[in-house]
Amino acid sequence: MYDQESPEKTTVSVPPLKGMTAEQAINSLKSKNLNINIEGSGKVISQSPINGTELEEGSIISVTLMDEIKDAY
């Protein structure tokens, strides 16, 4: 509940993370004071919430990573 004596919360826009490595995603979110929950390895294939969403600083972004699949041909 908002209280007049509470400091005002700062909101930031969630950046696009698709295609990034875990390290790149961590650095991108850290620069916006957002936290990350990582599942998998490889590159980001999905994120929640989606990019462009306005969240309070300190919120957690969940990302799913997957290794690239190379054609056998």
Question: Could you walk me through the main structural features you see in this protein, from its secondary elements to its overall organization?
Answer:
By secondary structure, this protein is mostly beta strands. It has one domain: Trypsin Inhibitor V, Chain A (2-Layer Sandwich). The protein contains one helix and five strands. The protein is elongated and about 60 Å long.
Query: What's the architecture in CATH terms?
Result: 2-Layer Sandwich
State the distance separating the first and last CA atoms. 58 Å
Taking all residues together, what is the mean pLDDT? Answer: 89
Question: The biggest beta sheet, please?
Answer: 3 strands, mixed
Report the top-level CATH class. Answer: Alpha Beta
Structural class: mainly beta
Going across the biggest sheet, name each strand in turn: 2-5-3
Element order: H for helix, E for strand: EHEEEE
Whole-number radius of gyration?
15 Å
Percent helix = 10-25%
If you consult CATH, what is the topology? Trypsin Inhibitor V, Chain A
**Uncertain residue ranges:** none
Number of domains as seen in the coordinates: 1
Total helical segments: 1
Report the principal-axis shape. Answer: elongated
Portion in strands = 25-35%
Number of strands: 5
Write the layout of secondary structure elements.
Blueprint: E1 11-13, H1 22-30, E2 35-40, E3 43-48, E4 54-56, E5 60-66
Parallel strand pairs: 2-5
Antiparallel strand pairs: 1-4, 3-5
Short characterization:
The protein is mainly β.
Give structural attributes.
73 residues, mainly beta, Trypsin Inhibitor V, Chain A, three-stranded mixed beta sheet, two-stranded antiparallel sheet, 1 helix, 5 strands, 12% helix, 34% strand
